[in-house]
């Protein structure tokens, strides 16, 4: 069930990215990020009020569990720094590599209070397929842009850190209230970045999304993504979760491109197929090993 929820998170994430892309085109990167966090905060606030949960939002320990929303802002900043310096396909591939490394470290060492899941030999199959898929998505642009490569890797790491920290917070506040806090923490940071970018641009970054109200729905989907992540992170190994999210996001993105008449990257699609094949093979091997172990006990 939770692995299906992980795939659903990837699907939701792809739709959210598409909607937020239209919002960014209407305004600017940082103004759009502030709008997304504002809409998400208001939506989560309404849901929490309807839920009538009694647990407090603030005051939980350790304090760093409140940093998920702030870490998530770095993901946006890092991706923006890399955009235009290397290809979008390479940004996706390097982001996945960063996520893979961070997820394996969290699983193996039990970092950030997560359950310790030492690396298993059966996971080598998924890892090999993942690295092969990532290699297929990289192109020549990465050779001459070391900073862009570094920040793209950093973006992947921050994705895993943010969702893991948010999940730790959700253990004490509940998944929905954890999503609210994530947006509330990120909101002032994105507002400050938006105001700074507007001042630097002399007001030129203030746009308009008139006539297209649907472009403001990204914040609502953002609440859903954080909520689903809060449910799946404690229950699915970080490495597998990373791959399932990627698969859901990639193939939904391709479907959206086809429906909207946009071009999509063949390299990303092929790499996604390889990674998906690795996940399937890995699951089959793990099931087989588990059944073999059960028979051995009998």
UniProtKB/TrEMBL annotation:
It comes from the Bacteria. Pfam families: DMT_YdcZ (PF04657). The chain crosses the membrane at residues 30-52, 64-82, 88-106, 142-161, 181-203, 215-234, 241-261, 267-285. SUPFAM superfamilies: Multidrug resistance efflux transporter EmrE. Keywords: Membrane, Transmembrane, Transmembrane helix. InterPro entries: EmrE-like, YdcZ. GO terms for cellular component: plasma membrane. This is EamA-like transporter family protein.
